[in-house]
Amino acid sequence: MARVIAVTNQKGGVGKTTTAVNLAACLAAAEKRTVLVDIDAQGNATSGLGISRQGPGPYLYEVLIGKAKAAEALCPSEVPGLDMLPSNPALLGAEIELVREEGRERKLKEAIEELLGEYSYVLLDCPPSLGLLTLNALTAAQSILIPLQCEYYALEGLTHLLRTLRLVRRSFNPGLMIEGVVFTMYDSRLTLSRQVVEDVRRNFPGRVFETLIPRNIRLSEAPSFGKPIILYDIRSAGAEAYLKLAKEVIDGTAGTRPRA
Ligand SMILES: Nc1ncnc2c1ncn2[C@@H]1O[C@H](COP(=O)(O)OP(=O)(O)OP(=O)(O)O)[C@@H](O)[C@H]1O
Ligand SMILES: [Mg+2]
Asked: What does pTM read for this prediction?
């Protein structure tokens, strides 16, 4: 059965999509069949894997409103073992259309159920907000993986996020665990970066991945070629870091699963 992990942080631009796309590719490269679900109407994960957002679909939107099955919307990617459930701009409408539906926060969970037997991992790339789509992701997930940027307010942001997690647990998904926090755009030359990592590690022991994702220009270039980093530049520091993160996820070394 697949492990369903939501890559989430309410803050924008912290590296959610970069992490979701590249972690998914690296899990597949490690021979773990993986599906990446693009929960964001911006569609960065979809285009980052070189999948068109202009085709006839079906896309995640049709799946959520019950017009298509998840399996029908799947697209293969260039990475063997990695499939994508893509989104297109219509997904924006789903937030509004689903509002009045019974069980509106469980639509994604129900839709992806049929995929769980086929894959080892299902990664959900969340938008930077706590709307109905993110709530669907947090309800469908077994755990959350939190990309965090090494900046002054990181600890505050994380505390805020964990408060949200408690609310979600109480109302929608009591078993939701923390897969781990991963630092993104890390710059070892900056004292601030090092301090933030130290602070968060001290406050949340055992919940932070060892792997630090460095700021790496190749990671920011790869999406414009529609490729994950391991196909764009396998020798880059970014590729090395995401391969290491994938290994940690597979081994469960963030050590957070039982305690959450
Ligand atoms: N490790 C990195 N090194 C260099 N650039 C990065 C790195 N991680 C992310 N970026 C760049 O930072 C920007 C934001 O990253 P990304 O889109 O992954 O964030 P996000 O959290 O998904 O954003 P949003 O909240 O809008 O969905 C992008 O331009 C991306 O290419
Ligand atoms: Mg994103």
From this structure: 0.96
